[in-house]
TrEMBL record:
SUPFAM superfamilies in alphabetical order: SMI1/KNR4-like (SSF160631)
Protein name: Knr4/Smi1-like domain-containing protein
Species in which this protein is naturally found: Pseudomyxococcus hansupus
């Protein structure tokens, strides 16, 4: 059984979760939906992500009494994926934090809502040998940006991704959402500046 299938089985069997499904999404529609403000982005939805989309998975949420709201994740369809990447992920041309150092987020493709202005993103500039992309938690106020001229990370610590793949991301989210006591970070999804290297979990 694949990691994605295992996660789907666990999520579907958890009584305290709301699991939403929809018709399977063609990956080609997602590729075509990504149109950055400048330049072009070439990417191919990785196999683990395609498997989740083919299963019809749309969203998984859990009501957290501590914050009085539902937390979880929402996978974008093609229409929302295009809009969110344009509005929250991809910087317009000429953005800089330091004078003369233009930044870019064209290496990112957001695939799921994390809450508020936070988006789970693939780093499509760094595919593994298996075609899987690293995953980053990106917030508009603390963007995971690179220096446009060099391709170096604007913040050196961002070189280490939050998750090594979509599978690892989904597995961690599954463990967090089904835990008897949810991790503290689940309550904080949507805040700027969160990182998840130390939060990775396996079923």
């Amino acid at each position: 059984m694949s990691t994605i299938s295992k996660c789907m089985e666990v999520l579907s069997g958890a009584e305290h979760l709301t699991v939403k499904k929809r018709a399977a999404i063609e990956s080609s529609a997602l590729v075509e939906a990504v149109t950055p403000h400048f330049g072009t982005i070439e990417w191919a939805p990785p196999a683990s992500y395609r498997e989740a989309l083919a299963s019809g998975l749309s969203a998984v949420t859990r009501h957290l009494v501590s914050v009085g709201m539902n937390q979880g994740f929402w996978l974008y369809d093609a229409d929302n994926l295009g809009t969110v990447n344009e509005d929250l992920v991809h910087m317009p041309e000429g953005v800089s934090f330091d004078e003369g150092v233009d930044l870019s987020t064209n290496h990112l493709v957001g695939f799921a809502e994390a809450g508020g202005e936070a988006v789970w993103c693939f780093d499509v500039s760094a595919p593994g040998a298996d075609g899987e992309y690293p995953v980053y938690y990106h917030h508009q106020d603390t963007p995971r940006a690179k220096v446009r001229a060099t391709g170096a990370w604007n913040e050196p610590q961002d070189e280490t991704p939050d998750f090594e793949s979509f599978s690892q991301w989904l597995e961690t989210m599954t463990v967090a959402l089904t835990a008897e006591e949810p991790p503290e970070w689940l309550e904080r999804l949507g805040e700027p500046g969160l990182t998840f290297v130390e939060s990775r979990r396996t079923l």
